[in-house]
Each structure stands twice: as C-alpha cells, then as structure tokens.
Amino acid sequence: ILNVEQSPQSLHVQEGDSTNFTCSFPSSNFYALHWYRWETAKSPEALFVMTLNGDEKKKGRISATLNTKEGYSYLYIKGSQPEDSATYLCALKAAGNKLTFGGGTRVLVKP
Amino acid sequence: DAGVTQSPTHLIKTRGQHVTLRCSPISGHKSVSWYQQVLGQGPQFIFQYYEKEERGRGNFPDRFSARQFPNYSSELNVNALLLGDSALYLCASSAQGRTHMNTEAFFGQGTRLTVV
Known about the structure:
The structure holds two protein chains of two kinds. Chain A is built from no helices and eleven strands. Chain A is mostly beta strands. By secondary structure, chain B is an all-beta fold. The A-B interface holds A 4, 6, 31-32, 34, 36, 41-44, 46, 49, 51, 89, 91, 93, 95-104 and B 3-4, 31, 33, 35, 40-45, 48, 50, 55-56, 58, 90, 92, 94, 96-99, 101-110.
C-alpha cells in the first residue's frame, strides 16, 4: 500500500505572503507525481505532472519541485492572492494509471 | 470541447438501495477511472477502465462494479448501499491506458452521494 502524506493539512496565509507545503511519498516504483488544485464545487484542476528527479515546474505564481530519491515534492505559492484559496492535492502514479492521493493541504488566503 | 461530465451531480439514496453513476470522458480519451472521496481525505481509487476492459481495481468490496461502453463513457454501480458509501464520486479521463509517465488525468466535478 502506497502512503502519500501531505503537510500541513491546512494553513492560513495573509494576502501577498508566500507559502509552501509538502508532499512525501515512497521513492520506490516511482513513475510520476501529480499536483492538483481543487476549489470547492469545482473539478480538481491539474497543475503539474512531474517525472524526473530535480524537476522544477512553474505556472504563474505557483511552482513545484521534485526529489524522487528522498521522496518529497514542494509546492510554492508566491505572493498569495485570495483566488489561491483551495485544497492542493498531490498524487503518486506508480504502475498503471492509478493515482494515489495524499489528504490535501487546504490553503486559505486572507485579504 | 466539453470536459469530463458526470451525472447526476447530487443523489440521495436509502440504505440497501442500488445506485448508478455516469461519466462521459473528454472526447478522444479512452481511459476512465473512478475515485471515492470522503470528507477530509484524498480521493481513493476504485476502478480504471481502458478500451472497455478493467485495468485496475482498488480495495473496494464486490458491491462496487463498473463498466465502460463502446463510446468510452462509463457507469459505476454500487449495490446494497451502506451509510459509509456516502461520498463524492469522481471520474477521471485520460488519453492513455498504460503507464505513460506524463499522462494527465482530467477530473469531472463529481457526484455527491448521500445514503440515509
């Protein structure tokens, strides 16, 4: 059973501040790590698919890094805005197309 | 192009009843996966279908079944509903069925099932 952990479970950020949070996963049988952004009452939105150790990806003010040797990924939000409030999910892809999700980090950006 | 569509959006059922949830993948996608998301947890994998064949099954009882149709749409069926089956059921579609590292999965908005 794959164990994907995300921390913290939730965090409050002041508008304009930057923040980051962690996804940890078993490093064996690694194929890819997915990050999703999930707003209430909407579909989870794909942010990044990361496959290579040392990968760094960026989309606007959101970026992510990947360390497959030690089994962790960081997601960074620079200059947080209220519209960044959402639950951020990471998911590990091992064999097959099955995604094993972490519990998510709920981010609330306060104006 | 329409994204992944799921129906119904909300559903209330009584214990012991049966339910069918439906999913239409993105046009051209041949793989559909089902996930169950209980409040406070991440989505849990239930099934994957590719080209109408089951390609993966999560740790769910036999009361859960699914199928994929020639047009690649899919149904998830749950028999003998229990209170613990109350959850958000998400469908995801992707272009590939096999393990391709960069294959993205696109999710629908889900069906909120409440069992009373």
